[in-house]
Amino acid sequence: MGRHNDFHDGYLLGILLLTENHAVVPIRDSAGGLWVIEMTELARLRADNISAGENILFEVVWKIATPEDQRELQFLFGASDGELNNRGERRKLPPVDSKWLDGTWTLVQSSSSLGGYFVALCRSVQVTQDHPVLAHFRS
After folding, report:
1. For the whole model, what pTM was predicted?
2. 24-50, pLDDT tens digit by residue?
3. CB under 8 Å to 71, separation ≥6 — which residues?
């Protein structure tokens, strides 16, 4: 599992889809440093509650997707635990397609102290302070 300790109390600056399967997430860490999480061969990305000025991170982790990640993968593919069906009953969600659990997909997940978060499924993750998109955020 990957994690960057300086992302705690850092700031999610945005999510940029560079192509249909390539995204970057610029982050300002707790010390003011700029970083990019670059995800390639992106299959899915879902973000929620992103708002201007209120996206303080708790952490960002990435790991190979496993059956224990069903809840996160269901969210990623558009479902949430406890959704109601058309009769007002709690819906049981089907398991996620096993092709995402073949050991070649990485689940990237942020959690927030305040504001928005994202979940992504991709083949490759790179964390760097040297990415052209960061020029936009440097003063």
Report:
1. 0.85
2. 999 999 999 999 999 999 999 999 888
3. 81
